[in-house]
Design brief:
alpha/beta, Rossmann fold, seven-stranded parallel sheet, two-stranded parallel ribbon, 49% helix, globular, disordered C terminus
Length: 356
């Protein structure tokens, strides 16, 4: 059965992790586009404030306090959408948490809890959404990361969870297509996004966590998500830098490893002491309607790469991807002849990673 998605103004959209960062910006943008919203997070005060903000501006929103790692909470979220709006058209699995630090220094219970949220929470949401959308059709949008394809040193367990998200999302897409279900399943893969992701993480490093440059605005991800709510896409990488890093993982993985070890491990540490360990979103709600985080540099408000692959013509998309491949091949050819210099390592360091 063909997938036919409604225009945003005609949709009801469920968004998890709506109390900060990407989820918050997506909710505000979707409301302005006319969509009805069912918002979820663990921070009730933030959800109430956001819902009031949207409704007072003439929009339509309701909320459910939910921990996505608990199937019963996810079922209540779907029930609220059905009770209030008669169902939903798009389900966005955005909720996520992170941990910074060496794997040998992170308690096993923290690793398991991260997977409960990032992976099992997304599984809970996806399967609940699929159950409701199989007959009427719609979209499931899972927020992964470029770390679904590569691994960021000192964010290894987070990277592992996003690898799992990609595997699950691809499998779910294929099974629904095999069954003829009219559901679009999309993986969104952001690079570094300037949201509270680093300061909400559980941080076992000796300094505060931050993004390595460059970082993109959360609006770049929100635009990609809402594009996919109305237009079926298999996957979208947000940020040309992230796409280049995925290319490096494929073509020069050893070089990427060295960059991670020698440069990136330093760039993701701020020059000041970390906040107290107990202040983290892994163990307690922290969302307070903050869109941006602690990124110290210039935030890129637009990703021309992502804008092109989501809104450009098929010919323009192809030209962009071919051009990127030629440029990467030429760069790799130079590496094989000349080796890597410190200047080249600095150029590589301009590419960074994902935030929820």
């Amino acid at each position: 059965m063909a997938v036919k998605l409604k225009k945003l103004k005609d949709q009801t959209i469920v968004i998890t992790g709506a109390s900060s960062g990407i989820g918050l910006v997506t909710a505000r943008m979707a409301a302005k586009a006319g969509a009805k919203l069912v918002l979820a997070a663990r921070s009730e005060s933030a959800l109430r404030q956001l819902t009031d903000e949207i409704n007072q501006a003439g929009g339509h929103a309701t909320y459910v306090v939910a921990d996505v790692s608990k199937p019963a909470d996810v079922q209540r979220l779907a029930y609220e959408a059905s009770y209030t709006y008669g169902g939903f058209d798009t389900w966005i699995n955005n909720a996520g948490v992170s941990i910074y630090g060496k794997l040998e220094e992170i308690p096993m219970e923290d690793m398991r809890q991260l997977f409960e949220v990032n992976f099992w929470g997304l599984v809970n949401g996806s399967l609940e959404a699929a159950k409701h959308l199989k007959e009427k059709g719609g979209a499931i949008i899972n927020v992964g990361s470029i770390l679904s394809d590569i691994t960021a040193i000192l964010q290894s367990i987070y990277s592992a969870s996003k690898h799992a998200v990609k595997g699950f999302t691809d499998g779910l897409r294929m099974e629904l297509e095999m069954d003829g279900a009219p559901i679009s399943v999309t993986l969104i893969q952001p690079a570094a996004i300037d949201t509270p992701y680093p300061v909400h993480s559980k941080n076992y490093m000796e300094r505060e966590a931050k993004h390595a440059p460059p970082a993109y605005a959360p609006e770049t991800v929100a635009r990609a998500i809402l594009h996919c709510a109305a237009t079926p896409e298999r996957s979208v990488v947000v940020g040309g830098g992230g796409k280049a890093m995925i290319g490096m993982e494929r073509w020069t993985p050893a070089l990427l490893d060295k960059f991670m070890e020698k440069s990136f491990s330093k760039q993701e540490k701020a020059d000041y002491a970390p906040r107290p360990l107990q202040q983290n979103a892994l163990d307690r709600p922290m969302g307070a309607l903050e869109e941006r985080g602690n990124y110290p540099g210039h935030t890129r408000e637009t990703s021309y790469y992502t804008e092109t692959v989501t809104t450009g013509s098929p010919a323009l998309r192809t030209a962009l991807l071919v051009g990127a491949g030629v440029a990467l091949a030429a760069w790799l050819g130079g590496k094989s002849r000349n080796g890597s210099t410190s200047k080249e390592t600095e150029e590589i360091s301009g590419i960074a990673f994902h935030d929820n």
